[in-house]
Each structure stands twice: as structure tokens, then as C-alpha cells.
Amino acid sequence: MICFQQKILNLIKCFRRQWPLFSNSERTTVCGADCMLMALQLSMTEVNEQHHGDFTVSLSDVLETWKYLLQDKLGLSYENMKEPENYADLKKAYHAFLARNNMLDLIDIYQKCHGLGLVSEDESIAPVQLLEFISGIMNVQENNGSVLSTPTPVNRQGQENVKVTILAKKCVCSYISLLVNSKDDLALAHIINVPDRGLGREAFTNLKHASQKRKMSIFLMATSFIRTVELGGRGCASPLFDPLRVHVKGLSNFVNFIDKLQEIVGEILNPRIAGGQILSTVKMHLIKGRSNGDPFCQAVEEVVQDLDLKIKNIIDSQHEVLTASTTGVSPAR
């Protein structure tokens, strides 16, 4: 019997192999549980602003809507749950957000795979199982079988190390994700101020508002603004960009670094070498100015080594297909 996590991985592999059946763009990326929740939160702020003029939302409302959305999308019973306010608009905004970001969430991929008959009986996943996986319930149930001990300094230190590793992985993966899919606003949100560029919540909110007015991704908005400043000077910036002027230095640093990564993709034809160079460049960028003993530096080093190996394995597994292609290797692949 295939373990459940392996079944989830097989779904993702199915999506990667058969992406034309899912999307018209090979730059479409997978939205996991944490990104789904973040996408919902951003969508709720948009709807709240439209209905109440308030660009904020409480965490409790987000979590309640999250539970309802998962049940709804998976076709599970939610009779005992109260429908969130403006739910139809929230659901529409959520899916519109994913579409703008060239993303599909795990439920979309799951339903598409099963609908097209791409999943064998042994690899089949029940809707309630996917709900538990996305909600984190399954992990809790699995951990309940372990021996629980009284928290100790060692345990707390171990938990902190896990948090640092998760942060490091999210940062490195977000840089790669944005490089592959420049419409990925969620990836941008994770790294726009990592390392510190002075681009906090205010900068992100200003960028988001400007991008909505221009109907473009946040990264394209940032790039357009910086190019205008660099080519035409500050005086040429239109009134629309006024809120962004105070963030010129930080945005320039961010946009130019992504440009540097894109240059690696364009200049190094060998994908194995390019992947390693991109990871090395991201690593140096993240640990710059930090001491060697910094836990974050150590975590980044380990994450980069692991991802480098995985990228090489993916390239090796697709070697025959790629060498037979007459169109070359795309940056997305």
C-alpha cells in the first residue's frame, strides 16, 4: 500500500508530466496548503475592501472561511457550518487570485487527476483524506502515536531549528518559484523583504494597490516602476507611483537581484549548471552579512544542498525527453 504522502507526491508528479491537460502555461505552479490559506486571506481583504472599505480581515474569520472553503471545494458536507459573509464573492476572488498568479491549488490538481482517470486505484485519495492532509489533521493523528515528553530546553531548541529550516526552505523556494512564474505574488510576498530591504507591510500594500490598478502582477508592477525611475528619472514617475517613491532603494535591490537570476537562466544553457548557480547565488544573497554560526545560514546551506540534488535528479529523470526535444530547454523546465 502506498503511503499517503507518496500519493500526494504522485499527484504533483502527474501534474508535472501532464501539465498541458491542466493549464495552457508551463509556468503554472502548485499552491500548497500554506499558500492556499494565504491566497484566501488576500482574497478576503479584497472583498472586505469592496464591501466595507476596510483592507483588513481578522484571523478568526480567515480560519472559519478556510474550513468552509475546503469542505465546499471537496464536495463534503458543511450543513452544520455557517456560510461566511459574502462567501460567493470570496470564492470567486480566491479562484481569480490563483488564475492571476498562474497557480492551481492541491484540490484543483486532485480533482483534475481523478476526473481524467490519471490516478490508479492503488493511488486513489478520498476527499476526506485530502481535507485532513491540507488541514494538518493527519499529521497530528500520526504524531499521537509517539511518546510525549515534558518540554525541555533541548526540545525547544529542536523546535526552533525546525522553524528556521522551514523559513530557509520557504525563502529559497520562493526565489525559484518567482523566477519560474513571475506572476506568483505569494512567492514575492515571502521574499520581498528577505533579506531586509526596508520593504515591510506598507511597501507590499502600496505595490498591491498599484498592481490592481494597472491589472498586472505585483512583480511586474515593481519592475515597471523601477524601470521608469532608472530610465526616466524620478521626475518622470506618474502620480500613480507616488506611494512607491519612498521604496525605490529596496525595490531596486529586489528587482535587480531577480534580473541577476534571470541572466543566469539565459546565459547558462546546461540546466544542471544553471540550477546549481541559481541556488548558490540565492544562498549568498540570503546569508550576506550574517555570521557563519547563524542558525539561518546553516539552514540555508542545508536547504540549498538538498534542492540542488533534487533539481539534478529531476533533470536526469527527464533527460531522454529533453534531449529528444527540438525546441531546447525552457527556463520553466
UniProtKB/TrEMBL annotation:
Question: Keywords, A to Z?
Answer: Cytoplasm, DNA damage, DNA repair, DNA-binding, Nucleus
Q: Which domain of life is it from?
A: Eukaryota
GO MF assignments: DNA binding
What InterPro entries is this protein classified in?
P-loop_NTPase (IPR027417), PARPBP (IPR038932)
- Annotated compartments: Cytoplasm; Nucleus
Recorded hits in SUPFAM superfamilies, A to Z, give: P-loop containing nucleoside triphosphate hydrolases
Q: Name one GO biological process term.
A: negative regulation of double-strand break repair via homologous recombination
- One Gene Ontology cellular component annotation held by this UniProt entry: nucleus
Q: Which family does it belong to?
A: Belongs to the PARI family.
This protein is called what? Answer: PCNA-interacting partner
Taxonomy of origin reads: Eukaryota, Metazoa, Chordata, Craniata, Vertebrata
